[in-house]
Amino acid sequence: MKNLGLIAFLLLAFACQNPENNADQMSENQVTVQNEPDSVLRHAVYFSFKDSSSAEDVQMVIDAFRNLQNDIPGIQSFEWGENSSPEGLNRGLTHAFTLTFHSNEDRDAYLPHPAHQKFGEILGPHLKEVLVVDYWTRP
């Protein structure tokens, strides 16, 4: 019971500390966080590949798509994965890719960019179907 009283006292003492002193300490210890936008533009791309494309061909396309973030300014991030939904509503599309942009202008510069056009030449012989959806995130 003595320990419980001591813990309660310490918690009360901590809660009653001068907030101005805490503010000074926090400002010394705060880390500056880069301002991120409150929403971002997602460029979601879904592919299916031709039956004649090998696993190596598909991996070559994935690697070329991933590499675009090194060649095109404005691509903030790149993600990809294979469909794993048990719902069966993917309409044959097997691979999902998401590129993130901070502005419409960044996305609009990406679309005609020579590196994106070159990627289209790599993809073309292996592409069966494609679906593209762009959307702004909502908090």
From TrEMBL:
SMART domains, per the entry: Dabb (SM00886)
Protein's recorded name: Dabb family protein
A Pfam family that the UniProt record links to this protein: Dabb
Quaternary data: Homodimer.
Domain Stress-response A/B barrel: 41-135
